Amino acid sequence: MWVWILFDLPVGTKAERKRATRFRNDLLDLGFEMVQFSVYLRHAWSREKAESFARQVGDCVPEAGHVQVLFFTDKQYVQSQVFRGQARPARPDEKPRQLALF
After folding, report:
1. Is 47 within 8 Å of 1 (Cβ atoms)?
2. Residues annotated as binding site?
3. Using alpha carbons only, how large is the chain's radius of gyration in Å?
4. Domain of life, per the record (predicted)?
5. Which of 62, 83, 88, 90 is deepest in the core (most CB within 10 A)?
6. Where are the domains of the chain?
């Protein structure tokens, strides 16, 4: 299962930018990978683990802003198409074959 985090946080003031940067760093600390500036992704071994990741993200959300968590099965994720400046779609990254410890 894949967990996607999409967010829109205010960055109009220095304090808001600091909170947004902290949130992005929290996502990285939780093992998420940046796909786009406000889109992060992580693989989860099970639905329960995916929901655990979502709760952890929820604990990090700043007061202002909007954060959405999406869940995709491996089968759904493999069917997605990725375009990176080329005519043909690239295959999305496959799920990790083993647990990576940092």
Report:
1. yes
2. 8
3. 15
4. Bacteria
5. 62
6. 2-75
